[in-house]
Fold each of these.
Amino acid sequence: NSSSTNPIMKNSRVNQLHFVLIPLMSPGHHIPMIDMARLLAQHGVFATIVTTPLNALRFNSTIQRASDSGLQIRLVSLHFPSTEAGLPDGCENMDNLPSRTLIKNFFIASSMLQKPFEDLLLGLQPPPSCIVSGKNLAWTVETSRKFRIPRVFFDGMGCFAFCCTNRLEISKVHERVVSDSESFVVPGIPHRIELTKRKLPENLNPGSPDLTAVRNNMRAAEVVADAILVNTFEDLEADYVKDYKMVKGNNVWCIGPVSASNKSNLDKIERGDETASIEVSQWLDLWEPCTVIYACLGSICGLKPWQLQELGLGLEASNRPFIWVIRGGEKSQGLENWILEDGFEERTKKKGLVIRGWAPQVLILSHPAIGGFLTHCGWNSTLEGIDAGVPLITCPLFAEQFLNESLAVEVLGIGVRVGVEAAVTWGLEERSGLVIKKEDVRTAIEKVTDDGEEAEERRKKARELGKMAKKAIEHGGSSYLNMDTFIQFVKQQNEINN
Ligand code: UDP
């Protein structure tokens, strides 16, 4: 029917609904919430993203472009009380926290946003109908009660990871092993997933107790959420979506992959940071389809130079063309010194491209030359690789990334492990042993790119999933329809409450 395809007519149906999104200020949360806000606006409602001045700089033109195209979307900045909470001036995002000891201060600063956020809500037009809030902002539960509007939780994980975590919390099998390296099977799920304690996320295997209170708070806020939005699509992990709904109740909506909402090249280039360069496209144009390995370990990887250089050497040893993203700036100084002293860049210049700083990941992944994605298995990256239809070379580091690795390798059959055996503690990476080994990187890349039947089968599965991902988000697809029913749910809740 034409009213569901025409955004203007859709507006008239739900024109007073206003979704206010406030993310956890880290790229892995902020970026999908920007995508989500744009998707909401495309479904005909108002969307306001609440952020801070320095974070807004990364997204201004993306939102401006969306607004110029007729969508009802805007960014609003609140002062982030960095110095008031003991953080360095200008530290508004977890990717520029100078040390792990300051995470607590970061959460304190985030909770100081409550009062200014509530003051903002009072003056917003149209009046807010719903708060979609990120993981650590437990205080939004109280805010939503004050304003008598639903509060929707967005965590950033997929359903498989949720379900594994849930089964482990209930069964506690991981607490009965005698050593960190003894394997156990996750009970009560459709696939046989073997893990060890040292691969588990910190909430199941706390490396240090400093964040226990923060985690408990987040947990309590998750339990009382009125609804949950998940960045995934139903066909990707159908059994686990079902299972997750059984555990959480039916107000769970899978609306992803949200990255697929970046249709234009400009949106892809500027996603996450407006300063990303487009030159990489021209470099990729030089290569045959499915030949280049793209390696990027996410936005907050703190591995030390002696660990990262193994990754670089493995890429070189694989003898395949590659793009290697390193963070750049002060934090990468040690790695830069190694690159220079070792002559790595000079040696690999015919085949390799080192990107310093922010890479336009979604643009790169969508290029036909990409033949494999070496990823740390952050959920956004995992899903972006799936959407691009490329096989994954999995190199998880922390959080639920080892669970995402199991999903890619065992459940979906589109991944090959580099063979990392133990999680590092985020911010304390220097304490961990060697996680990445050059030879393992080379072997995994060869396995993904060779001509054998197994590799071909993997590529085929990856391509099929890529098609399914695109279908899910398009008009009439499962994620598209879920977004519609989610909006209707919020509408009903507002009618009941007011
Ligand atoms: N990203 C990017 N360019 C980079 C590094 C990261 O565009 O150079 C994006 C990536 O596309 C993804 C997000 O940043 O959307 C990272 O989220 P993810 O969950 O994969 O990992 P995290 O950074 O949270 O560990």
Amino acid sequence: SKTINIALVGNPNCGKTSLFNVASGAHEHVGNYSGVTVDAKKGFFEYKGYHFNICDLPGTYSLSAYSPEELYVRRYLKNEIPDVIVNVVVASNLERNLYLTTELIDMDYRMVIALNMFDELEQSGGKIDYKHLGNMIGVPIVPTVSRSGKGVNQLFDTIIEVYEGRDESVRHVHVGLGKVIENSITPLKDLLKKDPTCNREFSPRYLAIKILEGDTEVKRMLEGSESYPELMNIRNAEVEKIETTLNEDIESAIANEKYGFISGALAETYRPGDKEEAKTT
Ligand code: GDP
Ligand code: MG
Ligand code: K
């Protein structure tokens, strides 16, 4: 049988471990850990003739180099190269959860979104056109309740479709970062593509964005390449241009554009429920 390696990626407390348990039949403790253990749990199971290896990664809000969890997840994705990433998001907290999704999209992974805690969204009267949202971001979205297992078979059916290249909502989409930042990404991306001595484990677009952000680990990955000095010259000039034009620091500028993209996509597809609105105020 074919083997599909999948990794669960998402914010803390979005239901990754519950999904891992219900899928793999493991009996791991579910709950909030006070101390953070940077570790990945692994399990496996058979489904519809496929052998699934599943990895439950630590929760992260982003894939930068700011916390041990972020670095761990990023290194895992780089070294293990899962066949399909399952990005677990909380249905009633998409604005925040989709930030990580934009980074996974930049990285160009094959991916499925588990729209988890769908029960809570429904109970609160929230509504989401998840098919439309999935088409907009080029990633299939499947509602799940990982605590009970509802939707989990549909999730794995979709993983198989994505793995086999049969899902029609999979498209190559860019999370557009606005004209000013896009104009700065282009020369970096072009140079990264041209130089064979540059890192090939991450997509040129992801690397270009991380260079602009000043990501220290990405810088280190590229230090040995022939283009490194030129990349840094371009980077410094472009960051100055962006910060002057947009009047904010580079990291805020990029984050704001990403949140703008998310708000735009959600404005068309998502209406939060009353209870959820009450919860966040
Ligand atoms: P992780 O930090 O991403 O691994 O999240 P966990 O699997 O530990 O889940 C965090 C909390 O959310 C636990 O109390 C789970 O029981 C609960 N939970 C997980 N999935 C769901 C779901 O689909 N619906 C609801 N209502 N609660 C869930
Ligand atoms: Mg967990
Ligand atoms: K909950």
